């Protein structure tokens, strides 16, 4: 306990990942991870500032928060940093008109965005929407642009649902990068700007004052550490499933 107290000395704010840390998603809405509802409640009762930092891109922020509240979590929309609302702001600021390759559940976040005559492509975790036809359409839009712009909501490789591991947006992002000879702009973890925006909302500094808790060693832990934060990897979510796979071999 003393060692942990030393490691956490000076921490004023906690960034929490959602998928694989608080709950595992699924077609039925998923289920909270054991002890996570109580852990969030204890953090909220402490002196620490708490913010939820997610790459969730199949649900709007409103839908995600509603789901978590029904599962018993103390959470509000204003406490969540999510890539879709952040991307919407970027599109408005830069006058970009996107071709959207996204899940229907998150389209509402782009309701005020002009999508006519697209001059960029926005890709997110489209799930079943990642068909050949849809990927090829996004490819064609990019190839027809003089200066192609590809914006990806995160670049995760996979995540865990109650049914098992699920391929994430990063694999499809890489396919478009390779085919078009371009590099995507990532809005979401592990982007330093994404972490900084969450920290700004909390009013804490990355160095010594903040800690990130997640199940992804690259997106959560690695991304946070590159920003100067401390980070902890939980043994749930994708970590627990991979650990079980290793144990069987």
From TrEMBL:
<dbReference type="GO" id="GO:0005634">
    <property type="term" value="C:nucleus"/>
</dbReference>
<keyword id="KW-0378">Hydrolase</keyword>
<dbReference type="Pfam" id="PF13242">
    <property type="entry name" value="Hydrolase_like"/>
</dbReference>
<keyword id="KW-0479">Metal-binding</keyword>
<dbReference type="InterPro" id="IPR036412">
    <property type="entry name" value="HAD-like_sf"/>
</dbReference>
<dbReference type="InterPro" id="IPR006357">
    <property type="entry name" value="HAD-SF_hydro_IIA"/>
</dbReference>
<comment type="similarity">
    <text>Belongs to the HAD-like hydrolase superfamily.</text>
</comment>
<dbReference type="GO" id="GO:0005829">
    <property type="term" value="C:cytosol"/>
</dbReference>
<protein>
    <recommendedName>
        <fullName>Phospholysine phosphohistidine inorganic pyrophosphate phosphatase</fullName>
        <ecNumber>3.6.1.1</ecNumber>
    </recommendedName>
</protein>
<dbReference type="Pfam" id="PF13344">
    <property type="entry name" value="Hydrolase_6"/>
</dbReference>
<dbReference type="InterPro" id="IPR023214">
    <property type="entry name" value="HAD_sf"/>
</dbReference>
<comment type="function">
    <text>Phosphatase that hydrolyzes imidodiphosphate, 3-phosphohistidine and 6-phospholysine. Has broad substrate specificity and can also hydrolyze inorganic diphosphate, but with lower efficiency.</text>
</comment>
<dbReference type="InterPro" id="IPR006439">
    <property type="entry name" value="HAD-SF_hydro_IA"/>
</dbReference>
<keyword id="KW-0460">Magnesium</keyword>
<dbReference type="GO" id="GO:0004427">
    <property type="term" value="F:inorganic diphosphate phosphatase activity"/>
</dbReference>
<keyword id="KW-0539">Nucleus</keyword>
<dbReference type="GO" id="GO:0016791">
    <property type="term" value="F:phosphatase activity"/>
</dbReference>
<dbReference type="GO" id="GO:0046872">
    <property type="term" value="F:metal ion binding"/>
</dbReference>
<keyword id="KW-0963">Cytoplasm</keyword>
<dbReference type="InterPro" id="IPR006355">
    <property type="entry name" value="LHPP/HDHD2"/>
</dbReference>
